[in-house]
Here is the input.
Amino acid sequence: MQALLQFGRNGLRQQAQSKYLSQALRGYASKELTVRDALNSALDEELARDDRVFIMGEEVGEYQGAYKITRGLLQKYGAKRVRDTPITEAGFTGIGAGAAFAGLRPIVEFMTFNFAMQAIDQIINSSAKTLYMSAGTISSPIVFRGPNGAAAGVAAQHSQCYAAWYSHVPGLKVLAPYDAEDCRGLLKAAIRDPDPVVFLENEILYGSAFPVDDTILGKDFTLPIGKAKVQREGKDITLVGFGKMVGYNLEAAKELEKEGVSAEVINVRTLKPLDRETIVNSVRKTHRVVCVEEGWPQSGFTAEIVATVNEECFDDLDAPPERVTGAEVPMPYAANLEAAALPQVKDVIRVAKRCLGR
Amino acid sequence: MALSTLKQACQLSRLAGTLRPAIYLSARGFAAEPAQEESETITLEVNPFKGHKVEPPSNVVETNKDELFDMYKTMFLMRRMELTADQLYKQKLARGFLHLADGQEGVPVGMEAALDFDDSMIQSYRDHCTYVGRGGTMKAVFAELMGRVDGPARGLGGSMHLYHREHNFFGGVGIVGEQIPVGTGLGFAHQYRDDGHVAFTIYGDGAANQGQIFEAFNMAAIWNLPVVYVVENNHYGMGTADSRASKSPQYYTRGDYVPGLWVDGMDCLAVKQACLFAKKHALENGPILLEMDTYRYHGHSISDPGSTYRTRDEVSGIRRARDPIEHVKQIIIEHGWADANELKRLEKELKAQVNADVEEAKKSPFPPEEDFYNNIYVDGLGAKLRPIEVGMDKIQLPKGPRGPSADASTH
Here is the structure.
């Protein structure tokens, strides 16, 4: 009923194929939730559920979170469980690693993942590898989370995408949510997961609102780690991406539909362990693939998708796999150059058409 | 009471049979039956501690015959273990890196006399003796060096990665300095749980200038974490003398606002006293730093002769004057608990025990194929990983939490 009012009869027909309608019809109390609130509510619920969970990072407490992701949590849970740290990433990440070894469940927030480079030895050599080196006796139920990749006008030192670096390392699980559903489900799953999880958020998306239903808002709502989602079904071409690029690919798909192209959009969700099966099955169906990321191209995450497609379904391809990535430059500040350094929706559309031979 | 007076008292007591100095309970020979009576408590003086922003504990240490024998035997076994590890490497049964701690045995032995296994500990890669101090067996160490399944890491870690989760020993860490924030996190967990225990975080003079240490000190001090930081100062970070690497090699002062003690690390009784004091301090007042003045006879690792940056005279001089095992041996002999021949016989037995352990360890098999991918994750999620080439079968991980950590880490 709400959908009818919102979209009108013609709109309803258009939405008939879309996931949103089915969601709207399923959830009788359909509402919207920002990514920020999705993350905040997930943290809140997991702090309430398990005493061992605590949050640690710069400005997570009294400041209410640099990006307000942890708003209200200090007031609710106290300073023991929402711990402001000094600006010393190597130190507090190592403390988190040790606390996890001892069986607590830390959530370490990096104000951005650029700063995590100062702590990357602890993430990789302490948290990622110790389970293996100890033959399974010492585990690391820890979550490292924060904004990753390009923001807006923050220049080269604050704009790097670390998807390729972390997804490279065995022993880590790496997640990249797109919408509010992803943020709630994947973050709750990450906190409950017994292994170290790198959770790559996107600052630009924090304020974006997405529809959610009662299932998504449920206290035990989790999404499976290790499974990609077919965000939009299609049959002519596969668009693969994670995080913000899923939104770009959905927009590109909408535009392509006007020209009679049915694009399938894969939301990778878990960068490691990578759900190669879902991606390959999609490419076997559509025979063409464009992979999109904001990170740099050399040894980038999309390079892995292209390698996988070549290795596992080369014979199903009707065209070489394509990539749309960030340009191979440190991020410029000037707005025009910054825009030129990142893929835009029009780039995805153009490359998709090229892949289709148009 | 001065040590010389004690010695005189010992001799007098033995000769007279009935004359006893006030601090003595009794003096019996090694051959006598030890089991029936409470072990004879004595007090001894150790080298005085030096304090930084803290009043050092008394240098009069209480111990007893049983404890001293225990310490002596453990140190001797540790010494033999390290020398045997050297041989294993030369026989190409052990591979990669090997960092031996012979000469430093006084530190783990003194420490464990002050702690229990609910206290946590983390160490650098020079970890064989620390692991044994934490209750690990020598056979397990030898097996791990040879990459066999009966090692504490089932052969997956090697010399630098010995762990004992049950006794709260978290390694065995290969990256210099990495263990200090991690050890601080172990202390964080003790405080979070309010469980009355402390974390001993051990590192070397080579690591002592690392920035992350000072980050850890700061947070430990702000939050009053029950952490005891232990610098095993063996005076050489690999081949660089402490005075060449550090503007201030007085490591016990480097905590600034974190109080510290300098300890004669070649005397296990001094180490014990300092650790008892430090544990109490950490629980009541927050972090404290102990500098153990110690020495390693081997080079930095098995590939280092240890003679290009220090003189052979220095090494043999320290061995003559300060060897931790000889020191306790002297105390035992002076108190009439055994003579040199009895101890020689005991040492022969202990050597045989070590040799037997090596032979047992050699029988242990290499890890099976499942160990290749079993412990990448606690919960493998049923994921498929890529093998070395795409023509091979994917590596199929199990689904659901499993393995030794499964119970502890799930909810």
Q: What stands out?
A: The radius of gyration of chain A is 20 Å. Residues 2-217 of chain A form a domain with the Rossmann fold fold (CATH 3.40.50.970).
